[in-house]
Amino acid sequence: MQRGFYLVTRDLHLYAGLFISPFLVVFAVSVFVLVHPPGSLPSPSAERTARPVQNLEIPAGLENLSGRARIDAVRPLLDRAGVHGEIGSIRYIPKEHRLSVPVGVPGRETTFDLDLDRRSATISGRETGIWDALVQLHKSPGPHLAEIRMNWIAMRAWRWLADATVYLLLFISVSGIYLWTVLRLERRAGMAMLAAGAVSFFGIVYALVAG
Questions:
Q1: In sequence order, what are the residues at sequence separation of 6 or more whose Cβ sits closer than 8 angstroms to the Cβ of residue 58?
Q2: Which listed residue, 38, 65, 93, 211, has the most CB atoms within 10 A of its CB?
Q3: Residue 30 contacts residue 138 (beta carbons within 8 Å)
Q4: Beta-strand relationship, 120-127 and 98-105
Q5: For 57-117, where are the E strands, in sequence order?
Q6: Looking at the whole model, is its pTM more than 0.85?
Q7: Domain locations in the chain as residue ranges
Q8: pLDDT digits over 67-79, tens only?
Q9: From CA 115, how far away is CA 153, in angstroms rounded?
């Protein structure tokens, strides 16, 4: 029984680690980019040529909506114009009776400028580059603008995968400790690494709190 449990845990530990390894690479590289912005790299490409869209079926009272209701009302207009991505915080400009809708895809920013009187929109955007895309993926599952976030199906899928990465990482940590305790020859080296990790962690925490 114990032998079978060990073998199953070992295999799950291995395959779970292989599954989440690409996601860990994304999170690790994006943290490095956040801490050390690659300012010396070539700048992203220039803005793309703006294009108009006419004869949009704008829902009545769209400017009076707010939060997720406004997002849901704007989404069909974006689909009609062929604009896809995560909708950010929509800005209403009363004097011009216009809505400015930011739409983001990792590596690309698009602005959907909606004229409510003329029932038309101007679409403009620019490429932001691979590094910005990694940062956006890193920060996207966060708590910012929780009411309207995750309104694009691809971003919701990314959130699910990010959650799965966390749960599997916890499983790998626990199963790794179990596998280490079973291998007697590795216990001394494992204790040394655990001690070194604990000292490093609590040392950094103490330095941050005391500072």
A1: 77, 114, 116, 119
A2: 65
A3: yes
A4: unpaired
A5: 86-87, 91-93, 98-105, 108-115
A6: no
A7: 1-43+131-183, 47-128
A8: 999 999 999 999 9
A9: 26
